[in-house]
Amino acid sequence: MWRAEDLQAGQDVALKIIILREGDLMREAAFRREARVAARLSHPHIVAVRDHGAAVLDGQRVLYLAMDLVNGRPLNALTTRPCSLAETLTWANQISQALAAAHRAGIVHRDIKSSNILINHHGSVRLCDFGIARFTDATHHTLTVTGAAIGTPSYMSPEQARGDMELAAPSDLYSLGCLIHELLTGTVPFTGSGWQVLHQHLHDAPTPVSALRPGIPHELEQLVLHLLDKAPSRRPTATETHRQLAKLHAGLPMLATTPTVRPDSRPIPTTLVETAHLTSGRGRGPGPRISALWAGTFTGAGIAAELSLTGVPSPWAAVLGTLAGLILTLFYLLDPPGSRRPGQLMITTGGLFSLLLITSGAALALLISTPSLWSAALALSVLGGPIFIGCASVVRRTVEHVLHRPAWNADLATTAGALHTTAMLLATHHLGLHALVVAAVVAMLWPATAMLTAVVSGCSAG
Prior knowledge:
4-stranded antiparallel sheet; 3-stranded antiparallel sheet; elongated; about 450 residues; 3 domains; Phosphorylase Kinase, domain 1; alpha+beta; about 55% helix; Transferase(Phosphotransferase), domain 1
């Protein structure tokens, strides 16, 4: 894209140029399609095309498209983070108006995405790039064949992902739903590799936006879910979407104080409900600070008692137990619960650091106490971390499902259980127990102490 001057109008324009190679029929068809589409459209939220044509430059055939110059930036420059509710409603409303105008003109855009939306310095959006658009009254076209998906995977409608030849206006509305989801949460509904995303568009239910960003108005969340309906016939039209967004924007002051209410008719995965519960700060049981304090207190007292079994003098056992409890509490106070995206690792920073600290300490202790076992210490330092993290995942999920604890609380209890188990291992080593007995002790103690910690930290302040 180039900045040029229209000598007749005396204004700057954006100039799109394509240098054609011999036999490059597909690019020429897409370019001419964009020019023909633009000739039908005139709307304040659509980039207008002033002129188009072909020329020969330095012996090469060149196609050009002169458009209004938008002084601003593409929307994808702002979607790396969640946008404000006011910005989201304003921009989505303007995009829906542009789509309504395009659909009335018999045009399906087919590539609605954040990079095809420009925001000028007034904060108004302009829809651009109709390069793969099609006319709904066209009897044939050259850009799509059966089984080929044309568009951008993250924003594709299910029918687009299937490679359907006949794409109608509802396909654009599904893409708009993906875009609104991205504006509200900072991420599109489905992520992964290209084929994974297409499969999810076809078969998976999207994560409700309030699970990723608590406080989203119920009406807006429902609109996004309706736009992302797998069945095109059940999606609202662009005009209906515009009306709902305009109504939501008009009631923005009231909506800002209205909590999101989930409809009972739509089942929500357990992990998503837990994430919303954590980030909203509402629900059963004490808050994260109280949970961390109680878990640290219980863990410190328990470890002090367990170390005393190894023959450690009581004052030292109390100091070490207190230190372990303080470290646990500090880790989790500095790493409070937050929203989690689908597929993100469940273990917290505090839990990960604690397990690696235990592993490193155990390897160092083994190397100091028995230098001849240096190879075992090396193996423990290399393989111990991944093994501990895998075991921690099993224990954490057990706490989650048995006691119905949110992920952050389950992780806190799992880390506390790991510290308890480490102290008990010192006791069993002092007693000279067989290695198989030690392994059995670990297998029973870790989940047992984690469950006990979860009960204490979840109920003591309740």
